[in-house]
Amino acid sequence: MTAAPPTAPRRARSVIVITTVLSILLAGLLGMPAAVSTLSAAEAAAGGPVKTADLSKFQAGNIISDAVFFNKGTMSEGQIQSFLESKVPTCQAGYTCLKDWYDTSRSTNADAMCAPYSGGFRERASAIIYKVAQACGINPQVILATLQKEQGLVLHTWPSTWRYTIAMGQGCPDTAACDTRYYGFFNQVYGAAWQFKRYANPPGTSNYFNWYAPGRTWNVLYSPNAACGSSPVLIQNQATANLYYYTPYQPNAASLRAGYGTGDGCSTYGNRNFYNYFTDWFGSTQSFNNPFGNIELIQALPGQFRVAGWAADLDTTSPISIHVYAGSQSTAFTADLDRSDIAAAYPAVGSRHGFDVKVPAVGAGTTSVCVYAINVGGGGNVLLGCSPVAAMSGAPVGAFDTVQVADGTVQVSGWAIDPDTTGPTSVHVYVDSVGTPVTADRPRAELAPTYPAYGTNHGFTATLPAAAGTRSVCAYAINVGPGGTTVLGCQTVTVGGPIDLGRVPFGAFEGLDISGNTASASGWAIDPDTTAPIKVHLYVGSTGAEYTADKPRADVAAAYPGTGTNHGFAEKLTLPVGTTQVCAYAINNGAGGPAFLGCKSATVAGTTPDLGRAPFGNLEAVTVSGNAATASGWAIDPDTTAPIKVHLYVGSVSAEYTADKARSDVAAAYPASGPNHGFVEKLTLPAGTTQVCAYAINSGPGGNAFLGCKTVTVASTAPDLGRAPIGNLEGVVAGAGGANVSGWALDPDTTASINVHIYVGSTGAQYLADKSRPDVGAVYRLGDAHGFAEFIPMTSGTKSVCVYAINSGAGGHAFLGCRDVVIP
C-alpha cells in the first residue's frame, strides 16, 4: 500500500481525499491514493524463501538505508531475469508467472522524480523493472521485494491476471476500490517508483510529504485498528520514511516474533515482509561491500613519507584507488602491486592490490598520515588508518663556521641541510649587500651520526671578493619544499686593502664574431695587483665604451691560479657599414697604465635602402586549449631579410612578438627574404567569443599590414574554489649538458594548463604544463594538456632539481618533489 501524492493526504486504512489539481505523475493524470493490502502472514509464508531473516535486527526507524534503497545499479536486466527464473523454475499449466510476463509500456517525459522512460511493445517484466529502476533511481531489488510483499508475484506459480493489474498496490487505498488509471503491470511499477521519489519532495515539487520527515520522531501505528496503539519512532532516513508513507504501519512484537508467520490481532506484515524478503534474497538492507585493506608501513623520508600496504574491494578484481593524506594534502594512487599473499587470503579479489608509494611532506613537526581505500560499486570509502609521524621536512639547518680574511677577499665555510632533500643545499653568502650562491656539497663526515639519512656531502667553502674596510658577511641556507630560508649566521670582519704594485694588466682579445651589423668581442683581462675583475675598453673605430671583465673563465683561472676565476669578457658591439678596426684595452685598477690587448678588422656590407614597402604574411591558425590559444603564421618586410615584429590582439588587448622562427616553406616561396619569418605564440583568452587578430609591423618607413583575424570561443569556467594544484614529478634523467625533467600538474579548479616552476638549486624558471597526457585526463577528467617534459641545461656535478605546481587562481602552490641527478 502507498501513501497518496499531494492531491490526497491519507492515513492507513482510512482515506481523506482533498481535491487539488496537480498535473504530475503518470501520463499527466492526477496523483491518487495508492495502497493495497499487503500479503497476509499466511500468504507470505506460503512458498516463501528458504532462509529466515533475523528480525532481531529489524529497526523500525531504519528499515533500509538510503544508499541501498536508491542504488539503481545493483542488478542488470539479465540478472533480474535470472533471479525471477531461479525463484519459479516452472509455472503451473494455464498460468503466466512473473518470469514470463510481458506488458506494453509507454514513453514518459522527464520530471523532478524520474528521467524519461522509452516505452516498448511487449516488454518483459524484467526489462520493465530494470528500465524503471534506471529512470527513477530506485534499487531494482526494492521493486522485487515490493512485488512479492504486495501480491506475492515473485514466488507465485499460479498468479491471476488481477495480481498483475495491481502488482505493486499503487493507487489501491485500503478503504476503496483501486484507481483504474494505475491498472497494469507497467503502470504499477512505474507509478510506485515515481511515488517513492515524490515522497522526498524533490526540487520543483511542494513540501507535501512531511508527516514522516527524516530526523524526527513520529508515532507510527501498529495496525489500521487505532485501538492497537502506536509507538514513537525516530525516522532516520528518507528510504524508511518512504516505506511508512507507502505502508504506514510498523510490526509489533508478535509480528516480529512470528518471522514469516502470523502474530496477534494487532499485527501487520507489510514492512516486516519487505524486510524479510529483501534480507533473505539480497542481504543486508544497510550496507554493500566496502573496501578493506591494511597499512603495513608509514615511514618518514627526507621531504616525503613512504606508505605501504594493500587495499581491495569485493565488488571487483581490479586494482582500486587509495588516497593518502599528509595532513590536509591528499594524493591519489592505484593499489596495483602484485601481492600473492592477498590472493591466497582473498582468492575472489586476485593479487594486484598492493601499494608502496611516497607523498610529499607538508612541513616540519608531527604530521597525521592517513590512507583511505576508495570504494567501487555500492558502499563507501574506508579509512584504513592514520598514524602521527615526525616529518623530515621544514626549513634548512646548518652552521656558519668560519670567516677568514685575506687582502681583498673573505673565505667562508660551514654546512647546510634541507630536511626535504638528500641533495646539496644552496647557500647564499652576502658580503654587505652583494650575494653569491654557493652549493653545500663538500664532505662533512661529522654530520653522519646526527643526520644519517642525508649523507655527508653538505659542507661549503668559498672565497669571495671584499673591498677594504669593515664588512658584514652573512650566510643563508635556501629552502626547498615546506619552510623558509634559514639564516646560518652573520659575522663582521675587517678586510685589508691589497698592496698595489703598479703592475700593468694583461690579457687577450680572442674573438670577434660578426652577424649583420653586430659584433661579439670576447677575451680576458687581469690586473696582477688584484683578484677583482677589471675594466676593459672596447673601441669601434674611434668610439669606445667601458665594460667589466667579470665573466667566469676556468681556463684563465687554471693558468693564473692566484688571480681568481672571473676575468672574461664577451660583449655585443654595433658596427658601421664598411671596414672598421675593433680594439681592446685592459684598464689598470690602480697605479700603472692600461694594456693594449689588440685590434681586429670587421667588415659590414651596406644594406639595401628601405623602399617603404608594406610587409605581408598570414595569420594561419589560432588553436584553443582551455583558456589558452596558440597563434601561428608568418610575416615578411620586403625591404629587409631581418625578422620583423608582429602585433597580436586578443580583443582590444595587444602584445608585440618577433616573427623569427624558421619557416622553410616561406623561405622557398620568398628566397630573397631569408628563412626566419614564422611566429608561434601563446595567448591567454577571456571566457566567451573573442577575435584574435594579427598585424605585421613595418621595419622602416611605410605602413603596417593586417594579416587577418580568427574568432575563438572559450567556455565559461567554473568558479575558482581555491584548491591547491596536484601533480607528480615523475622523472629527472641526466643527459649531455643537462637533464630531462618530466611529470604532470593540474589545478582542479580549471581545465586549462598551468605553470610549473623548475628549480636547479636556487635557480628557477617557469614552464607551461601543456603536453598531452591522456592517462592524467582519464583519471581527473580535466583534459589531457597537463604534462611537462623539459630539458634543463646544467653544469656537471650533483644537482638538486625541484618542481612546484603554480596555482592558476586563488589558493597556494603545490610542491611536487625534488630529485638529485648527477650530470656528467
Explain what you see:
Helix content is 14%, strand content 40%. The N terminus is likely disordered. It is elongated, with a radius of gyration of 41 Å. The protein has six domains: 228 residues, no CATH class; 100 residues, Immunoglobulin-like; 99 residues, Immunoglobulins (Immunoglobulin-like), CATH 2.60.40.10; 99 residues, Immunoglobulin-like (Sandwich), CATH 2.60.40.10; 99 residues, Immunoglobulins (Immunoglobulin-like, Sandwich); 98 residues, Immunoglobulins (Immunoglobulin-like). The strands form twelve sheets. Strands 5-6-10-9 form a four-stranded antiparallel β-sheet. A four-stranded antiparallel β-sheet has the order 8-7-11-12, with no helix packed on it. The protein has 14 helices and 44 strands. By secondary structure, the chain is mainly beta. Strand 21 and strand 22 form a beta hairpin.
Structural class: mainly beta
Residues in β-strands, percent: 35-45%
Question: Major β-sheet, in short?
Answer: 4 strands, antiparallel
Helix content: 10-25%
> pLDDT below 50 for ≥5 consecutive residues: which ranges?
2-38, 40-50
| Rg value | 41 Å
Overall average pLDDT? 88
Shape label: elongated
List how many beta strands DSSP finds: 44
Given the structure, what is the number of helices? 14
Whole-number total of structural domains: 6
Strand order of the largest sheet: 5-6-10-9
What is the straight-line distance between the termini?
A: 81 Å
Give the helix/strand layout.
Blueprint: H1 41-45, H2 66-69, H3 77-87, E1 102-103, E2 123-124, H4 125-136, H5 140-151, H6 161-165, H7 185-198, E3 217-221, E4 230-234, H8 238-246, H9 253-257, H10 270-282, E5 292-301, E6 304-312, E7 320-326, E8 329-335, E9 337-338, H11 340-345, E10 352-360, E11 366-373, E12 382-390, E13 397-406, E14 409-417, E15 425-431, E16 434-440, E17 442-443, E18 457-465, E19 469-477, E20 486-495, E21 506-515, E22 518-526, E23 534-540, E24 543-549, E25 551-552, H12 554-559, E26 566-574, E27 578-586, E28 595-604, E29 616-625, E30 628-636, E31 644-650, E32 653-659, E33 661-662, H13 664-669, E34 676-684, E35 688-696, E36 705-714, E37 726-735, E38 738-746, E39 754-760, E40 763-769, E41 771-772, H14 774-780, E42 785-793, E43 797-805, E44 814-823
